[in-house]
Design goal:
Layout (H helix, E strand, L loop, with lengths): L3 E4 L3 H13 L3 E7 L6 H5 L2 E6 L10 H11 L3 E3 L9 H9 L3 E2 L4 H8 L1 H11 L14 H11 L3 E5 L9 E3 L2 H19 L4 E5 L5 E9 L5 E13 L2 E7 L6 H16 L5 E9 L5 E7 L6 H8 L3 H9 L16 E8 L1 E2 L5 E2 L2 E2 L2 E3 L6 E5 L6 E2 L6 E9 L2 H14 L1 E3 L5 H9 L1 H5 L6 H4 L1 H33 L13 H8 L6
Helix pairs in contact: 4-5, 5-6, 7-8, 12-13, 13-16
Length: 504
């Protein structure tokens, strides 16, 4: 029986897992690097232990150290979250060899599906359609150029391990191939500990649709419907929603069956995600499988009323799925926006720094998964995402209205964020009408940048006015005192009368 879980991760996903643990009366254990000493997940956990320097290779990717801490604190299980070691079969195997439960799939399934090259082979064998590409790694820039030419541009270079858009490069011309290969391999190594990359044909004007999968140790596997994840920048998702405004009920049923078949082909256990590309003619192709919990899992939870982390823990505890496929019915509509510390006007460069002020939105149908707080310093060493803003409503129209409202209420100062950019993103006709695809950002680039620039100008004007008012008021405060004036009058009214703005 699982009574204590070590979360081998950081930030918002660590807190999200800990919250489910607390509701299940399970003790949670945090691990942290030197850079994360003051992170909220450290403060929230029942226990917390340091595991190394800021660099992820020496901390959150340090398998021996994490297992050492788990054994030391008496953890019954380890939850990997997403990213870092979440899709590392070696980690899962060593955890189980140490006598600790790994909350995730078997290492064999992770090797079969977590490795995208192996997954392609498995899907071809299972009769699931795949994107044209190769089923082996690329070893040199010269080989990358040759294979790209054989497949035909445009192509996409991918890390075989991991996910989250890391280790991926879109190549449209031969001249880009060598540099893209070296960059993708380097990013893959730093993010996932493996530099293996391969190539697939890039399908223009497609939809990125993923199906949530859940399986137990008794060969019961179900899907929990789809998520629309087509709004991406550099293969990094920005906004997700469920149900997809593009998918028809008939296509949902067909894709769901293929997703389950894909999971059954590798005897999949626990939570996972089957990702598809769907063209405008409703042809779909297997893209990859993420053998872990997804960043965007909250929107599935909201439309189904299912706590996926709790389901993961129950499966790892040896329980049978209590959900049946016929029980899975989408209700209402959910949208998720990823809140990132980045400068949208400077090529989305990360914007680390100290959060000076934080005002998070609230209200009916609003959920925030975040680790940010006032005074916290966003470290430079990790992913710039600081939280996820999720809304639910009875319809897509109402969900969009709610998301616009809460994005307006969300205020963070001290660092640059993408909140303003997201506000304008939701105002685009393509999004409002649900007619967008994976080319959304490129198609609407001018509109989005213009909107952010206008908003910046307004913000700067307001800031200048506020600073000038503060300056003038300070001048008044520092004047030599005259005869006492005890009139009960507002300081703002006083200022207005002095400057001739207000007369009473």
């Amino acid at each position: 029986m699982i009574k204590k879980i070590l979360i081998a991760n950081r930030g918002e996903i660590a807190i999200r897992i800990m919250r489910s643990c607390r509701e299940m009366n399970i003790k949670s254990v945090a691990v942290f690097s030197e850079a994360d000493r003051s992170s909220r997940h450290v403060l929230y956990a029942d226990e917390a232990y340091p595991i190394g320097p800021a660099a992820s290779q020496e901390s959150y990717l340090n398998i021996p150290k994490i297992i050492e801490v788990a054994l030391k604190c008496g953890a019954d299980a380890i939850h990997p979250g997403y990213g870092f070691l979440s899709e590392n079969a070696e980690f899962a195997r060593k955890v189980r060899e140490s006598g600790i439960i790994f909350i995730g799939p078997a290492p064999e399934s992770m090797e079969a599906m977590g490795d995208k090259i192996s997954a392609r082979k498995q899907m071809i064998k299972a009769g699931v359609p795949v994107v044209p590409g190769i089923e082996r790694q690329i070893d040199s820039p010269e080989e990358a150029i040759r294979i790209c030419k054989e497949i035909g541009f445009p192509v996409i270079l991918k890390a075989s391990m991991g996910g989250g858009g890391k280790g991926m490069r879109l190549i449209r011309e031969e001249s880009e191939a060598a540099e893209a290969f070296l960059a993708a391999r380097s990013e893959a190594l730093s993010s996932f500990g493996s530099e293996i990359v391969y190539v697939e044909k890039y399908i223009e004007k497609s939809h990125h649709i993923e199906f949530q999968i859940l399986g137990d140790n008794y060969r019961n596997i179900i899907h929990l419907c789809e998520r629309e994840c087509s709004i991406q920048r550099r293969n990094q998702k920005m906004v997700e929603e469920s149900p997809s405004p593009f998918i028809t009920p008939a296509l949902r049923d067909e894709m769901g069956k293929k997703a389950v078949a894909a999971a059954k082909a590798v005897n999949y256990v626990n939570a996972g995600t089957i990702e598809f590309l769907v063209d405008n003619e409703y042809n779909f192709y297997f893209l990859e499988m993420n053998t872990r919990l997804q960043v965007e899992h909250p929107i599935t939870e909201e439309v189904l009323g299912v706590d996926l982390v709790k389901e993961q823990i129950r499966v790892a505890n040896g329980e049978r799925l209590h959900l049946r496929q016929e029980d899975i019915v989408q209700r209402g509509h959910a949208i998720e926006c990823r809140i990132c510390a980045e400068d949208t006007e400077n090529n989305f460069m990360p914007s680390p720094g100290i959060i000076r002020q934080l005002a998070e939105p609230t209200g009916i149908g609003v959920r925030i998964d975040s680790y940010a707080y006032e005074g916290y310093e966003i470290p430079v060493y990790y992913d710039p995402m600081i939280g996820k803003l999720i809304v639910w409503a009875t319809s897509r129209k109402f969900a969009i209205e709610r998301m616009k409202r809460v994005l307006h209420e969300y205020k963070i100062t001290g660092i640059k964020t993408n909140i303003s950019y997201l506000r304008h993103l939701l105002d685009t006709p393509d999004f409002e009408q649900g007619t967008y695809d994976t080319k959304f950002i490129e198609t609407n680039a001018a509109f989005l940048i213009k909107g952010v620039s206008i908003n910046k100008e307004k913000s700067e004007n307001i800031a200048l006015i506020a600073a000038y008012i503060d300056y003038l008021m300070n001048l008044d405060e520092n004047k030599p005192s005259q005869a006492a004036d005890n009139r009960p009058i507002s300081r703002w009214k006083e200022f207005g009368m002095q400057k001739g703005v207000l007369r009473i």
